[in-house]
């Protein structure tokens, strides 16, 4: 009886959020697209009157010189910049505070993030702290707790997966508790996003695969959740089609610029979908794998996705069938459950062909109770999943991920 009441309360709050999502003024970043488009960003920074920006990235990208063309174009426009390159794979509160110090020390007036989801998430939360010095990172956890605007933010993704360049979300890890959590606020949406496939050409196959499956996870969870609408469905379908058509191409041939560009579009479309329709248990579990063990988010999503889809296949059969048709796996008139199973099976096949494992090597059995508690605390009541998990169901699913 108590569980029935709880589920009813969860669904009530989710319905309220669905209505709110229809009326909230979600900002949409301006897009600069195509090969070499990163060089156009300096113009967009300059016309806003910005003269000294903080560039947030990581040491790996700095070592290979990937931001060089961005730096050159900034210099040509007379825009000085400070570089903060200490972002970790799963950025921490300490990373954010270090970035805030660099921003203030150099008198910056804007932020450019260049990299994967980690630099973009870190840059968003650096901006939130700069704009709201009276709020700690933890105080901004959850929905709509960033009170004042952040400095102008520009995002240059170098992977096609997170969609962070268009979302309201910044994800961060508390290193003291190993908890990974999200900050969600309309103020975190960047002013401009750059989709330049030339920046993704050198991405290793393993990272290409994991980030691509991250984009697919965003699209699928947004689509099968109960809070979608025509906008989110349309963008999720486009993202799904593009991932199925292009991900294995770029996994096999990273120099395929057109396929890289299509994957960049897929990531952005999926981000636009899930920032309005939310995600689900795949993300809730994956966040814990990142927080506890440092597992890369896209890789965790890729491994967990088939398990969660199998769990909710009956409740989400019609939507999964629609995605199967979008992906070219069947035709209208075939039974929904058969199409759904075909869709899940194809995801497993894609993972196998791209060398993605079926379990999480770092997972420890003794951590499972903590993972389950944190997963359900994150998902309930905010995530409008097609089937709500009990504690025992979640525990059973997580145990399937043990190596």
Distinct helical segment count? 15
Average pLDDT metric: 96
When the domains are counted, the total is 2
Radius of gyration: 20 Å
SSE pattern? HEHEHHEHEHEEEEEHHHHHHHHH
| Shape verdict | globular
Number of strands: 9
CATH architecture classification name of the largest domain: Up-down Bundle
Query: Class by helix and strand content?
Result: alpha/beta
Strand order of the largest sheet: 1-9-6-4-2-3
What is the CATH topology assignment of the largest domain? Dehydroquinate synthase-like, alpha domain
Q: Any low-confidence stretches, pLDDT <50, length ≥5?
A: none
Q: What gap, in angstroms, lies between the N and C termini?
A: 36 Å
Give the C-level CATH assignment of the largest domain.
Answer: Mainly Alpha
- CATH homologous superfamily descriptor of the largest domain: Dehydroquinate synthase-like - alpha domain
The proportion of strand residues reads: 5-15%
Described by strand count, sense and barrel closure, the largest sheet is: 6 strands, parallel
- Helix proportion: 40-55%
Observed structural traits:
Rossmann fold; alpha/beta; 9 strands; Dehydroquinate synthase-like, alpha domain; six-stranded parallel sheet
Polypeptide structure, described:
By secondary structure, the chain is of the alpha/beta class. The chain has 2 domains: 2-22 and 211-399, Dehydroquinate synthase-like - alpha domain (Dehydroquinate synthase-like, alpha domain), CATH 1.20.1090.10; 34-200, Rossmann fold (3-Layer(aba) Sandwich), CATH 3.40.50. 53% of the residues lie in helices and 11% in strands. It contains 15 helices and 9 strands. It has helices at 2-23, 41-46, 59-64, 68-76, 93-105, 117-131, 205-224, 230-252, 257-277, 281-293, 297-311, 317-326, 336-353, 368-379, 391-399, and strands spanning 30-33, 52-56, 80-84, 110-115, 142-143, 153-157, 169-174, 179-184, 192-195. Strands 1-9-6-4-2-3 form a 6-stranded parallel sheet, sandwiched between helices. The protein has a 3-stranded mixed sheet with strand order 5-8-7. Strand 7 (169-174) and strand 8 (179-184) form a beta hairpin. Helix 7 runs antiparallel to helix 8 (230-252), helix 7 (205-224) runs parallel beside helix 9 and helix 11 (297-311) packs antiparallel against helix 13 (336-353).
